[in-house]
Amino acid sequence: MKxxxxxxxxxxxxxxxxxxxxxxxxGTKETGFNTMTISWRHVGAIWGANQGMPTAxxxxxxxxxxxxxxxxxxxxxxxxxxxxxxxxxxxxxxxSGRDEDKVxxxxxxxxxxxGFTYFAEAKMVLVCRKVxxxxxxxxxFIDRSIIDGNYPQRDYHTMYIGEIVKILGxxxxxxxxx
Length: 178
What we know:
Layout: E1 2-4, H1 13-19, E2 22-28, E3 32-38, E4 41-46, E5 53-60, H2 65-72, E6 75-80, H3 86-94, H4 102-106, E7 110-112, E8 117-119, E9 124-135, H5 145-150, E10 158-169
Antiparallel strand pairs: 1-10, 2-3, 2-6, 4-5, 5-10, 6-9, 7-8, 9-10
């Protein structure tokens, strides 16, 4: 993988963020790490000067083991894998790292960076520095119909906003990371 800049990445946000899944991972080889499959996430800009700080937002339910790692670590990654890895993504999303070494059992290859972990099979990786975390609150829902469909157990996600500090990719700047 090569390091890219924000300007190098030509993202079509609806297919990449609405239709594809990804892995969020936190931790290191030394401190331990865990990963989980996510489908809810956003990429954009907020705060900062000029055009804003480039950010990625992820959402994790309180009972997920990976949440402990994201809470503990200053960095997390979002690894985008092609549809060829749907089976592995399903596996990692349906198992807990509390119960097994699900990464080893998935067959994916962790790669350890300076304070972060991602996967060799990824086509693009966002390395994010946590800058904000807050629980989603029931009182914040204006459209209350969203609650029953998404939160029947009232286990609201925690929202994490991370500054994108590094992008790794296998594509050239002329191509979308599809």
